[in-house]
Specification:
It comes from Pseudoalteromonas haloplanktis (Alteromonas haloplanktis). This protein has five helices and two strands. It is mainly α.
C-alpha cells in the first residue's frame, strides 16, 4: 500500500507539492502515534510492582488521547488528498525505531523505557513542526496542540522516576 497523495485535490489555497510534503510529515507522526498507543496499552497490561495501580490507571487516559490524536492526523491526511494507511504491517514497515522490548516488568523499568519512547515521539513532533511551519499552518497547529499534551504525559511519567533533586532514574 502506498501512503502517497492520490486525490486530484487538496485543501483550497494549498498547492499539491506542499500538500504532499505535509502528508509525508503527518504520515510519519501518525505511524509514531499508532505505535505509541499500542506501547502504552502494552505497558498498562504488563506493569507490576510498587505503584502498580497508579501507573496502570495513568496510562488508559493517555491511550485514549493518543488514539484521538491519531484519528485527527489521519483525517487531516485525507483532507489534504492523501490516504492514511494504518494497517499493522504498514505501520511496522514505515517506522524507524525498534520495538518496545520490555514484557512483564516493574513500574520503574517500564517508566524509564516509556520516558525514552516519549523523548523520541516528542522530539520528532518538534522536527515535524519545523517543516510544517513552512507548508501548512493548520497541520502545524494540530501538531503543536498534540505536543503540548504529549509533553504533559511525559511529565506524568517522569514524576514517577524523578528524585527529589530532579534526577531521572535510568
Amino acid at each position: 500500500m502506498s501512503n502517497s497523495k492520490v486525490a486530484e485535490f487538496t485543501a483550497p489555497g494549498m498547492n499539491s507539492e506542499a500538500a504532499e510534503q505535509a502528508i509525508a510529515q503527518l504520515d510519519n507522526r501518525m505511524v509514531a502515534l499508532i505505535d505509541l498507543q499500542l506501547t502504552l496499552k502494552h505497558i498498562h497490561w504488563n506493569v507490576v510492582g510498587p505503584n502498580f495501580i497508579g501507573v496502570h490507571e495513568m496510562l488508559d487516559p493517555q491511550v485514549a488521547a493518543v488514539q484521538e490524536m491519531t484519528d485527527t492526523i489521519a483525517e487531516r491526511i485525507a483532507t489534504l488528498g492523501g490516504v492514511p494507511v494504518g494497517t499493522p504491517k504498514s505501520i511496522v514497515d514505515r517506522r524507524s525505531w525498534e520495538d518496545y522490548s520490555i514484557g512483564k516488568g516493574l513500574v520503574k523499568d517500564h517508566l524509564v523505557a516509556l520516558d525514552k519512547v516519549y523523548i523520541g515521539v516528542n522530539g520528532d513532533h518538534r522536527k515535524a513542526l519545523e517543516k510544517l511551519s513552512e507548508l501548512d499552518p493548520v497541520s502545524e497547529d494540530m501538531i503543536i496542540a498534540q505536543l503540548a499534551e504529549l509533553e504533559q504525559f511525559q511529565w506524568f511519567v517522569r514524576a514517577h522516576i524523578e528524585s527529589s533533586t530532579g534526577q531521572l532514574q535510568s
